[in-house]
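hi!! sorry for the late reply, been swamped w classes. u asked for the two structures so here they r. pasted raw, havent cleaned anything up. first the sequence of the first protein and right below it the tokens
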Amino acid sequence: MGKTLFITDLDGTLLNSQAELSDYTVITINSLIEKGMYFTYATARTEYSAGSITEKLNISVPCIVNNGAEIYDRKSGRYVRKSDIPIDAAARIIDAFAENNMGLFMFKFRGEKFGTCYSDNLNELMQEYVRTRSKTGQPLWKCTDLHSENDGSVVYLTSTGDYEKLLPIERIAASVKGLDHVFYEDTYTGKYYLEIFSENASKANGLKFLREEYGFDKIVAFGDNLNDLSMFRVADVKIAVGNAKDELKKAADFVIGTNDEDGVAKWLREAITK
């Protein structure tokens, strides 16, 4: 019998509307992992953020973070794959944000340490991110000149705000060689996220890496938002939660219960134990 990997998005999918794991989900998934289920997640969050939320899950398969820009092995505490943004491409995006007076987060490595550089002109939502993440121990570096940090170790550029303000930058990102991006409405705030990364990085490419590197024969993926579409394109079975965007439901093989109904955990329990 082949190896099957079950992989889920976090926000809006495995996590409830309070961005938490329910006790039922934790107990159910850990019980199935103990019985041999291969399980992990793919998220737009950094590992600092995702790891603190999912620490109760006994995950042994590496996790896809930053929308596929990195793959993190929780067992070894190492990033087993990362995709850097070309310097010229990152420079064009930094300029675009500056020209449009929009704040920007730059996720990068300084040596072995992974953290976030951020510009001066952050909106209130981005300032709240800095305040919240600074309490978790995640490295945060305020930078007056983001170009000085663009040294070939940048893996992710992102901002959040109003659709109309981000749209001109999204169009630039779509035209720059060497880049891929996702542009979607946030699960919690109704604001929009623009997330920019190397063309070699995506949830889909992260999934391909896990399949090839760890010998999975079948992949079952769960999602709710537009940044999960790339993952659906390479998964063998595609499952949307009941609160998912219509575009994702149309691409799915099955639509299950919502994130607030423990939809993923209940489907896994029924599918694996029957």
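now the second protein. again sequence first, tokens right under
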Amino acid sequence: MGAFIHPLTDWGFKRIFGDKELMMDFLNSLLEGERVITDLEYLNTEQIPEDYDGRRTVYDLYCKTDTGEYIIVEMQNREQTFFKDRALYYMSQSVVKQAQKGKGWRFNLTAVYGIYFVNFLLDKNEPGEHFCKDIAMIDKHTGKVFNNKFRQIYIELPRFMKSEADCNNFLEYWIYNLVNMNKLKEISFKDRKAIFDRLEQIASQANLTEEERARLDEDWKNYNDYFNTVDFAKDEGRAEGELKKQHEIAQKMKAKGQPSDFIADITGLTIEEIEKL
């Protein structure tokens, strides 16, 4: 794992962005040119439904800015078929929770931001290295924002292919640091922003307590177990596909009267397997 915690694990991600100074700087880098967050408050990540049968919602990190916006920040390693729907549902909970009982409330909502780091491609058929998808409610005809109270930003980490020299803004510096955490001490532009000294301090394993190190080790194990399982499943799928192809070739050769020993040499199947086809 190296000298620094892995920022894409559940515990590592929450340790880094659970630091107010780091979180504010990242958000300001992400929203550069739009606004500056000067303070934020971390909120309870567990949202209890109003009714007994409702589904509980748990965010990775949930905070409120100095001007009242709600921000959900999540790290998603596991690819999910309906992840975008899940993200929409989670954001909607933050909207619904703003409702005030009584007749005086006039639906004046505070903006909700959903920021999602995803360690997979949202659309495998989409080409390019555009790693940051900024989703807003817009008028399709004019391209103008129709309602600025609901916004999603997806950061697709596998699409980030920039070298250190190619990074041109603080958001790209941030993402480069996160995906190259093992090189943090060597990164040249770290000195261009004091906040990355803070990142180095928070992410250093040398600064962890014994209890924190135990939690990190368990989290790292879970992270590796998941991806090892995914890789194994992919290998198994490829192997099954190759075996099916060899069976098809053997069947065609057998239909043309080729001897079993010759088919075995060509396909790699055993004589017994060929005779059962």
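hope this helps!! also noticed smth abt the second:
The CA atoms of residues 77 and 119 lie 5 Å apart.
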